Prior knowledge:
Largest sheet: 7 strands, mixed
Order of helices and strands: HEHEHEHEHEHEEH
Structural class: alpha/beta
Number of helices: 7
Strand order of the largest sheet: 3-2-1-4-5-7-6
Strand content: 15-25%
Shape: globular
Distance between the termini: 21 Å
Amino acid sequence: xxxxxxxxxxxxxxxxxxxxxxxxxxxxxxxxxxxxxxxxxxxxxxxxxxxxxxxxxxxxxxxxxxxxxxxxxxxxxxxxxxxxxxxxxxxxxxxxxxxxxxxxxxxxxxxxxxxxxxxxxxxxxxxxxxxxxxxxxxxxxxxxxxxxxxxxxxxxxxxxxxxxxxxxxxxxxxxxxxxxxxxxxxxxxxxxxxxxxxxxxxxxxxxxxxxxxxxxxxxxxxxxx
Length: 225
């Protein structure tokens, strides 16, 4: 599978318009045999902070809503056209935490989604609360939430685990299951499931540290079947 991406380096939005290593890892993982044949066909997918992963699963048959900051929508729309995915992808503006505004609610009422993807989104402590709130609002008990994260700063990681634990149960995908060509000790992929007593506001609970998460394996519910 080949995906064409136009990046926009430079300027204030460089981080959001660049394809980072974790995005490559997750995109390859979505297309791997970690998922049952036909898993993505017809799935309703919301991607927060659009990276190649949303385009990848669209090519695999999913119906994807790609979201970004308003100023980045032109680049996102161009990438949809470059990959001839106009019939599988819609493009929406969604600043995290603004899912309750009237303009977003016009289309966000489609929640809960089958799958929510958030890759390279938790890069700063200041955005994590808003990110998790929006992830939770987009999810239901059966929603598979995939969080791809590259470890750069310990304080960011610590805050991230705490915020995730307020709303989600977390399982780390063992790195031996990551695509070999993109495997890295600095990159983690988490499978998240909304807690049964969770809401948009979340509840108070901790998330296991990274070492414990990396030792876990999928439980009885296999989200990739």
